[in-house]
């Protein structure tokens, strides 16, 4: 699957990672709903770090559609909440 992190680019992430990423995404969603800024920051940082860790960067000259888009690392809680659906950032 193709994941875009805003302002960073796209990464190709193994489909087998979807359950792990959904669990991390759920934590981001829960912290947004709780308006817990500290926990939100940690949850978002963990999600983005994991995507970077397991993803393979896609060259900038290769145009591919993203399966989902994650916020930039310095996004605020309110900005991320505005990006979310009822399922979070990553569709289930």
From TrEMBL:
**Residue ranges constituting the PspA-associated domain according to the UniProt record:** 1-92
InterPro entries annotated for this entry? Answer: PspA-assoc_dom
Q: What Pfam families does the annotation carry?
A: PspAA
Organism domain of life: Bacteria
Q: What is this protein called?
A: PspA-associated domain-containing protein
Q: Which organism is it from?
A: Catenulispora pinistramenti
């Amino acid at each position: 699957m193709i994941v875009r992190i805003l302002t960073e680019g796209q990464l190709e992430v193994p489909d087998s990672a979807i359950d792990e990423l959904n669990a991390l995404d759920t934590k981001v969603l829960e912290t947004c709903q709780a308006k817990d800024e500290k926990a939100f920051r940690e949850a978002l940082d963990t999600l983005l770090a994991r995507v970077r860790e397991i993803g393979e960067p896609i060259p900038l000259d290769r145009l591919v559609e993203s399966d989902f888009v994650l916020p930039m690392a310095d996004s605020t809680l309110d900005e991320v909440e505005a990006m979310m659906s009822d399922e979070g950032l990553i569709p289930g």
